[in-house]
Amino acid sequence: MSSTLEAIDVVKEYPVRSGLFRRRTGTVHALSGVSLEVPKGKTLGIVGESGCGKSTLGRSIVRLHDIDSGSIRLDGESVESASGQDLRSLRRRVQMVFQDPYASLNPRLTIGSALIEALEIHGLAAGRRSERAQELLEMVGLRPEFVQRYPHEFSGGQRQRIGIARALAVEPEVIVLDEPVSALDVSVQAGVLNQLKELQDLLGLTYVFIAHDLSVVRYLSDEVAVMYLGRIVETAPTGRLFAAPEHPYTKALLSAVPIPDPIVERSRERITLSGDVPSPLNPPSGCRFRTRCWKATERCATEIPLLRTMADGTRAACHHPESETQSPTDPTDSQRTEAGAQ
Amino acid sequence: MRAQSVAATTKTTRSFVGQWTLFRRRFLRHRLAVSGLVVLAMLVIACFGAPWIAPFQENHQDLITGSTGPSPVHWLGTDELGRDFLSQLLYAGRISMSVGLGVGVLSTIVGVLLGSLAGYFGGWVDELIMRLVDLFLVVPPIAILALLLQGFGSSSATIVLALSALGWTVIARVARSQVLSLREKEFVDAAIVLGASPLRVIVRHMIPNLAGVIAVNVSLAVAAAIITESTLSFLGFGVQPPDSSWGNMLSQAAGLLGTPQVHLLLYPGLLILITVLSVNFIGDGLRDALDPQTKR
């Protein structure tokens, strides 16, 4: 099977300018060589803290901004250099669902007009656009009469469904979901997630699912990529990642997910990372996670760890992955004892 | 199954009401705006239909009578040249209305378009348009107007063009700043990802969200244009006698302060006020009608 979506060594940097002559005084390293691959019809979850570059990656995939180097390909066609007619057809193939359901719908347009606009742009469903708009609403579990209502008449969950309907209007192959449920109540999240899953099965969609909530990612993703400060630190099939994380950062993230069983919850070891994420203006040399890692050695400061293939399809960018460490749960590190005391 | 869903769709289609219908409904529910529209329409008809409606012809003089007070023949009296004041007002309204409304609409369209382009594209487009705005703002307007009208002659068309050429800068700056903030909204990103052209994004997604500032600007610009025109007439660059506008009738009547004819000051002033107020109410109504969140 051909892989639908591919990112190869994507770099995105924002210049920081200051002073009278707008001199470049620094660079925000938003994405520093990100590569990933999403097979057709599958879901790749992307997780990481805020500021790790996951949204920048999503916005690069839908061409909301250009990238500085590297390549993003859809079935081998390059996304980053498309223009004119190619860009138009690309826009039809790749869509996005946004994070904030309150800002992602134009308050002045009825739901019908917003959906019909998407059809108009690509000349779809000519002559039966209002019927098509109603069908789209039904597809996302909303009543077709909603076409004549305005966004402010809906709840967050309903708006997010409308956002999904708008993305579906152009019959895309890939949808980038940028934290689609993080603004919703937990009870509503489940409904939207189930809807997304159903639509994927029905339409064979490929998802890039960006989130910071691991349990949400786990539910929807076939594979998960963990990002830290503009780099992917680990990717693995979902089950594998949750069962046996290789990268210390992944391990720390997973230990922060609450377990609904109080006995297990009390007995398990927790890793609390100390300190903050370093500034992307001036990321640490070598491994970017080393400043907060309890396993960091001299090698981590000098040599950038590359993504290496480990067992069972896991790839991790670490000099000291869990499976290669002698005593993986040895709590002797000073940073961890300190963290445990907090 | 298929037939069933088709039946369901056709049933709901009937209740589909377009954006335009909703807009019209909301506007018609706005009483002040509707009355403003009616009054303005009446004024427009009266003024532009003056050749058929006015009791006397334009500049019909009765030099023997001279200036008189209100009478059954001359409802508002006559001026010092014996011209029927009511007829004068109606004829003068043609110029004042076209100048006021023309400048209000034209300068707003130009200003909103250029301001939006500057805000949307940024970079050199922004620099170019905003430096042009600065240029227009630093040069004294009366000097430019005098120059322009001297060069092209002063008809109501040239006055409208000249005043619009100067008047677009204020709304351009406002539109630019609003577009800059709208640029960050996710619905604009969504439109771009859907493949909407910059023109579509600006016209469909940004300008409707500027309705409030546009409505305010139009009503201010209409009033300002009528007044500026009278200033120009006073300085000799605007409408020249025997043609008259409300503005120059007002400045002529200002000389009557302290005489029994002082009421002549009232009428042109009143008509300017009514026009501006009507435009203001219509602007309010449009703004509310364009905003679906208005509770009415």
Describe the structure.
The complex is a heterodimer of chains A (342) and B (296). Chain A has 342 residues and is an alpha/beta fold. Chain A has a domain at 246-342. Chain A is 32% helix and 23% strand. Chain A has twelve helices and twelve strands. In chain A, the strands form two sheets. Chain A has an eight-stranded mixed sheet, with helices on both faces. Chain A has a four-stranded antiparallel sheet with strand order 2-1-4-5, with helices on one face. In chain A, a hairpin with a 4-residue loop joins strand 1 and strand 2. The radius of gyration of chain A is 22 Å and the shape is globular. The N and C termini of chain A lie far apart (49 Å). Chain B is mainly alpha-helical. Chain B has a domain at 96-296: MetI-like fold (Orthogonal Bundle). In chain B, helix 5 (85-121) packs parallel to helix 8. The radius of gyration of chain B is 24 Å and the shape is globular. Chain B starts with a helix and ends in a 6-residue tail after the last helix. The model of chain B is unreliable at 1-15 (pLDDT under 50). The A-B interface holds A 59, 62-64, 87-88, 91-92, 94-96, 98-100, 103-110, 112-113, 117-118, 121-122, 130-131, 134-135, 138, 144-145, 147-148, 150, 152, 163, 166, 169-170 and B 5, 8-10, 12-13, 15-17, 19, 22, 185-187, 189-196, 200, 204-205, 208-209, 211, 290-293.
Question: What would you say about this model in short?
Answer:
The complex is a heterodimer of chains A (342) and B (296). With 342 residues, chain A is an alpha/beta fold.
